[in-house]
Amino acid sequence: MPSVIVKDVCVDLPIYNSRGRSFKSTILAHTVGGRVADDRDRSLLIIRALNHVNLELKHGDRVAIIGANGAGKTTLLRIMGRIYPPTSGTVESVGRIACLTDLNVGMDVEATGYENIKMRGVLLGLTRQEIAALVPDVAEFTELGEYLKLPIRCYSQGMMLRLAFGISTAIQPDIILLDEIISVGDQAFAERARQRLNSLIEAASILVLATHDLYMARELCLSTVWMSHGRVIDYGQSDKILERYAASSQAP
Amino acid sequence: MVRDIYAGVADIYDGLRKWRMWWMLAWNDVRRRYRRSVLGQFWLTMSMAVTIGGLGFVYSHLFGVDVSTYLPYIAVTFVTWAIISPVIVDSCNALIESDHLLRHISLPRSLFAYRVLARNLIIAGHNVLIIPIVFIIFHVGMNANILWLSVGLALVSINGFWIGYFLSIVCARFRDIPQIVASIMQVVFFVTPVMFLPSQLAKRGISVVKWNPFANLLEVVRDPILGAVPSAWALGSCAAMAFVGFLLLIPFAGRYAPRVIYWV
Q1: Residues sharing a CB contact under 8 Å with residue A105, sequence separation 6 or more, in sequence order
Q2: Which residues in chain A (67-126) have CB-CB distances under 8 A to chain B?
Q3: pTM of the model
């Protein structure tokens, strides 16, 4: 049974400037006993992106993550998607995870549409047969036809998005991590994309959606996590949380 | 420490198991560099052939060595060096360049070291076409010792992997290291018998070559192609280097590889 358990997770992001990154300053710091009279160097900035976060998701959960910019929504998604290792605490997950934080990941503009589909298939960890099955599905959905034989640098922005969206949503995952609801293309295509995404979400075991769109959060998710400054400040039924969140952001 | 060793082994093994990914990425790297050109990736072979031809004639006179000895020799050493040196230099940027993939897909870090190694072996596969041509022109024969080549290539790959993977992690953190490595490899090129014959130095009683790990790596690939068995010293020291290298790499990778995502 798919599940995600985030236990007491902290994430500290170190921000290095070029001095902090240089080997010279590290060596110098050792040789002179750390008494370099250089104030610029003391500023190894550490940002606590997540602060003792606990979250337990099980089969059937549809969770929205809301909060202001920089509250840690995307970082939390990345922790669950195993992109970031937690600085402390543990993350355990069961099931195939799709981290839809960037549709364009792993695309090569010099390669053709078909080549890109295959390359993405490989990056998703599929076998040759599975990829062969993937190609016609994506080709049909994107309606790119002959264009798939051309390098994607010839594509318009919209065509590129169609392809990226088509590939990203071709495999049914158990757990979907979504950074904002994606909408692509012209009206007719946007509608088909919405349907495709919805059927993907419906068939998935767990959905986590980081969003600013409170309407979408209410529509798609039964429960909501409200984050602020890397902490979970409220977690519960979407209706209640969203009401409180809306009230707090309206308050002066 | 135990946990680091366990994580390091898991990372290296997991990367190896995902061979489809790094093999695909490596091929795509080679192809994309020469897309839209007529000769495609055979430009690699062309430029290598021109280098070997030009250097071969000029330097054989400069060193006073017979061209029919010298040119086949540097054909083999240049093709071999074109594996060893780029594996080390390219690895420095292996993780830095792949930041976009790392940020959106959960992948073992070792995958990118395998990718650099595979990329350069693929390129070597193109360059190697030069060797039979040169051998035919200068009537150089091969013999059964060519079988040692498999051992030689394995030693170069294993050592290339650990050095490359180690550097890829260090370079993600310290951005000056790629420059340092590039200049070191430049010097190493001149003190390793790539352009000169080791016998030229040995005549004068200089044994620098013996203690140069790159000379040993070169020898275990070069000698089988030229019809000789690599010396026990070269084979042994390459094997020892691989062994010690992995002992150091495993706990290091286990500890620091997960943190790479915060550095790239």
Answers
A1: A123, B100, B101, B104, B105
A2: 78, 81-85, 97, 99, 101-102, 105-106, 108, 110-111, 118-119, 122-123, 125
A3: 0.89
